[in-house]
Design a protein that fits this description.
Elements: E1 6-9, H1 17-22, H2 24-30, E2 34-37, E3 41-43, E4 53-59, H3 65-78, E5 82-87, E6 91-93, H4 99-107, E7 125-130, H5 134-139, E8 143-147, E9 154-158, E10 161-164, H6 174-178, H7 183-191, E11 195-199, H8 203-206, E12 211-212, E13 215-220, H9 226-241, E14 247-250, H10 259-270, E15 275-278, E16 296-297, H11 300-310, H12 316-327, H13 333-348, H14 350-366, H15 373-386, H16 401-416, H17 423-434, H18 442-471, H19 492-505, E17 510-511, H20 522-529, H21 535-548, E18 554-556, E19 559-561, H22 564-577, H23 587-608, H24 619-632, H25 638-668, E20 672-676, H26 697-705, H27 714-719, H28 721-736, H29 738-743, E21 745-749, E22 752-753, E23 759-766, E24 769-776, H30 780-783, H31 791-795, E25 798-801, E26 809-813, E27 819-822, E28 825-827, E29 837-841
Parallel strand pairs: 1-2, 1-20, 2-5, 5-14, 7-11, 14-15, 15-16, 17-20
Antiparallel strand pairs: 3-4, 6-13, 8-9, 9-10, 12-13, 18-19, 21-23, 22-25, 23-24, 24-29, 25-28, 26-27, 26-29
Helix pairs in contact: 11-19, 12-21, 13-14, 13-15, 13-18, 14-15, 14-18, 15-17, 16-17, 18-23, 20-22, 20-25, 23-24, 25-28
Length: about 850
């Protein structure tokens, strides 16, 4: 069953199955068809997200266990709602709580789970969980031999962690081993283990297992192996076959060795009715492979498409110029992207790169290719850096035609660049990726192809989303998961083309605007888009605010803190997160915001990896910037807070119009709209963990109880009630007319006249059903800072010509209830709102 609308719930952090079950009546009233659950399987103790799974075949007791899950599933079924589970096939936790991982530590290659995890068994298993080298922590007395409190067996004890000893190293002499105190003897015992304890700092260089991105606490799984697939999907498939679960969301599908084979097997095992989507970042113009038997992605490309509608392309260059003046010079974004990727290849993913390089060198030697290691290294480095998308989809057998075409394009680009390496080395790597090697080197080439594809994704994600997007802050709304990092134009026509393509290629994909991984909540992003409409006003505000807090700037050995570009980021981030109703004299509210904001600032500075980072923090710099941020939000700093709040008002108002427009588009454009928890009202969250906070569900339910809110009242916009009610109205229509939204044609419409550029309009049409969508855009200058503007002023001398299949019918505005007879055009003066309008054709069969 294809959902008509999903509602994402983040379990843990206080959210349990019983709490979710209690929300079912609310979700049903809101118009949701499926609850969309974050991972529910047993994870590490205290996990806040559930992606660090320790037991894939147990439902986590901390959120209610199997009994609680069954109660929730029963409540959903009784209400007619479905359930979608977020599952994690790519990795599990490297935690001693993980029985499989613990068994591998204890028994090494002899463990029945040794091949479940993606481990390089040509060397000892590396465990990079010490604060310093093994020798250093042994010398300091932090490593000792003790009996494991859980098993009673001898273990290497490091604080609260007890690493089991392989039986061969202690059996028949248990008491002697337990009494070991001599450091040399403990070191010798450690050398006899199938693992090697080491410092966490050595992980980027020496790791012997594939990790998830840079997270050494998560180890890759080999689900391409049938036994591993069966062991990790036993409970998942049981829940699907029992009817308790209707759909599956696949986390980080690009991390798998063979995503196509995985989704094919999952489809075969789960059955044709299971709704399956994959978390996959698509670049502009990139599409999912057509032969994957799934409904589509989880929607990051949809977020990117919305920027085409809400960014003012005519004025964004002015905002960019202002930003460059703060930086002190024009920013070469391509050079910045290259620098970020170089950092990742040379430092953060040094071990993964070295493993790839060694495979390539071995193939060259086996096939008699006259290339030395430095030459191959340079070519491999440039090829990885030039990769524009997450990955290709080659298998052990070779590279599909689409992958070959992309690779050829990238290689040509590298050869023509100023950083071009030896062309013969590039050609050699191309042959390896195509599988054009000797029979003796075929297996090694297959492993190289797999490892290459499993590295390009993390390299792209960490370079762009988790480095560049924290370094270059011209427009924070554009620094979003799935967005393009390079400068480009924004086009309403491109949006319409992308939606037509979406209808053609993945009409049942999820359409997201906020997720647990987005850099900021949808309404913060919608507000920050408006900076592109008023760059001069933003410049004036920024300059004034910066001057007001100038006394808090300090001078350090490595430069000013915060620098101008730091303050640009701080004020823009604060502008996005500032609650719509927060007043400067609300000391409790200001302090609550300060706590969230400071956590974001620390993360932003470290992710940028310029003057500080997670590996080596620069405390003086961090403290200086954090002190500046504290001063910004000091309740005693009233002159600034009053000015900031007042200056922000026009951006707040225009941002709320943007919020409603992007919501209406999500609800009516091709795809399955997802409502991220709490985002049916307003979501001004920052990057995780801020975006995973528990919403005030009681307040949301009370707000929905008001059946007829005043859509023109400012307080209802500021509270999010207008947005919530629009969602409830449209989701009700989606349930009544599912095929209109799932398969109905997408017809771009064009406005003409004075305000033609300030409206986006399109229609969905299927047989006799039709819906005309009209929503405002780029209205910052028209609103004059409030919602009191008469609609006649906004829409004066503006009309929408209608094609024959839409003209000369009676329509009902599903928001206002007003009926209108349309001729061959819509005069927007006849529309009763300066917000969105949704005109449903009235048929004889409709009530």
């Amino acid at each position: 069953m294809i959902p008509t609308a999903t509602y994402r719930i983040q379990f843990r952090n206080g959210m349990t199955f019983d709490r979710a079950a209690a929300l079912v009546p609310y979700l049903k009233r809101l118009g949701i068809s499926h609850l969309y659950a974050s991972p529910i399987f047993t994870a590490t103790s205290g996990s806040t997200h559930g992606y660090d799974v320790t037991d894939a075949n147990e439902i986590d007791p901390s959120i209610g266990g199997r009994e609680g899950f069954d109660r929730m599933a029963k409540a959903l079924k009784e209400a007619g709602l479905g359930l979608i589970l977020d599952i994690v096939p790519n990795h599990m936790a490297t935690s001693l709580e993980n029985a499989w991982w613990r068994d591998v530590i204890e028994h090494g290659e002899n463990s029945r789970y040794a091949r479940h995890f993606d481990i390089d068994w040509t060397r000892r298993l590396t465990l990079p969980f010490l604060g310093d080298s093994f020798e250093a922590v042994l010398e300091s007395g932090d490593i000792s031999i003790q009996a494991d409190p859980q098993t009673g067996k001898p273990a290497l004890a490091y604080f609260e962690n007890f690493y089991p000893l392989t039986p061969e190293s202690w059996q028949d002499r248990e008491q002697a081993v337990l009494s070991l105190t001599d450091k040399a003897a403990i070191a010798e015992l450690h050398e006899r283990q199938p693992y090697r304890l080491m410092s966490w700092r050595d992980a980027p260089r020496e790791l012997s297992f594939r990790r998830f991105f840079e997270v050494t606490g998560l180890v890759g799984m080999r689900v391409e192996d049938d036994a591993v697939f069966d062991d990790t999907h036993r409970l998942i498939l049981e829940l699907v076959h029992s009817g308790a679960v209707d759909g599956l969301r696949i986390d980080h599908v690009d991390g798998l060795a063979d995503p196509k084979a995985y989704v094919e097997k999952l489809r075969q095992q789960a059955g044709p009715e299971c709704y399956i989507t994959v978390e996959k970042i698509l670049g502009k113009g990139e599409h999912l492979p057509e032969d994957w038997p799934i409904s589509g992605t989880t929607g990051y490309e949809f977020i990117s498409s919305l920027s085409e509608v809400l960014v003012d392309d005519e004025q964004i260059d002015a905002l960019r110029d202002v930003y460059h003046s703060v930086v002190g010079q024009p920013v070469d974004i391509k050079a910045e992207l290259r620098a970020a990727k170089l950092l990742m290849v040379d430092r953060n993913f040094e071990g993964e790169f070295t493993r790839l390089l060694n495979l390539a060198v071995n193939i060259a030697e086996a096939d008699g290719v006259a290339l030395d290691e430095p030459t191959i290294r340079a070519a491999l480095r440039e090829l990885l850096i030039a990769f524009p998308v997450y990955r290709t989809y080659g298998t052990l057998q070779g590279m599909p035609m689409e992958g070959q075409a992309l690779l050829a394009k990238i290689v040509d680009k590298v050869k023509a660049s100023e950083f071009a390496p030896d062309p013969a080395a590039l050609d050699f790597l191309t042959r390896v990726l195509h599988g054009e090697v000797s029979a003796g080197a075929a297996d090694t080439a297959g492993h190289f192809r797999t490892r290459f594809q499993q590295l390009t994704g993390p390299l792209m994600a960490k370079s762009v989303e988790d480095t560049l997007f924290f370094r270059q802050n011209m427009g924070l709304a554009l620094n979003e998961v799935g967005a393009e990092p390079v400068q480009r134009a924004f086009s309403l026509d491109r949006f319409h083309k992308e939606m037509k393509t979406r209808l053609e290629r993945q009409p049942d994909a999820i359409s997201s605007t906020s997720t647990h991984d987005t850099k900021r909540g949808e309404d913060a992003r919608a507000r920050l888009y408006t900076l592109t409409e008023a760059p001069q006003l933003w410049d004036e505000c920024f300059a004034r605010w910066r001057q007001m807090n100038q006394t808090k700037v300090v001078f350090l050995n490595d430069g000013t803190a915060p620098r101008g570009v730091d303050t640009w980021m701080l004020y823009q981030a604060l502008a996005g997160v500032w609650p719509a109703t927060l007043q400067p004299d609300d000391e409790v509210g200001i302090k609550a915001l300060e706590q969230r904001f400071l956590e974001f600032v620390e993360k932003a500075l470290r992710e940028a990896k310029l003057r500080t980072d997670w590996v080596d923090s620069n405390e003086a710099y961090e403290n200086a910037v954090l002190d500046y941020a504290r001063h910004m939000l000091d309740p005693a700093n009233q002159p600034f807070l009053q000015d900031f709040c007042a200056g922000l008002q026009p951006f707040i108002h225009a941002g709320l119009v943007n919020s409603l427009t992007q919501t209406v588009i999500k609800l009516t454009a091709p795809g399955v709209p997802d409502i991220y928890q709490g985002s049916e009202a307003l979501n001004f969250s920052l990057v995780d963990p801020d975006n995973r906070r528990d919403p005030d569900f009681a307040a949301l339910q009370r707000m929905l109880d008001d059946e007829r809110p005043n859509f023109s009242a400012e307080e209802n916009w500021l509270s999010g009630q207008v947005k919530q009610r629009v969602i409830a109205h449209v989701l009700r229509l989606r349930q009544q007319k599912p095929m209109l939204f799932r398969r109905g044609d997408y017809l771009p419409l064009s406005a003409s006249g004075k305000r033609a550029d300030n409206v986006i309009t399109f229609a969905r049409v299927q047989d006799d059903d039709a819906l005309i969508v009209i929503a405002p855009r780029l209205v910052f200058s028209a609103l004059h800072g409030g919602f009191e503007l008469p609609h006649t002023e906004l829409w004066t001398e503006t009309e929408i010509p209608l094609p024959e299949r839409l003209a000369n019918h009676r329509y009902r505005d599903i928001l206002s209830g007003k009926e209108i007879l349309l001729t061959d055009r819509i005069d927007l003066n006849s529309v009763d709102s300066c917000s969105s309008v949704l005109l449903q054709r009235v048929n004889s069969t409709d009530s």
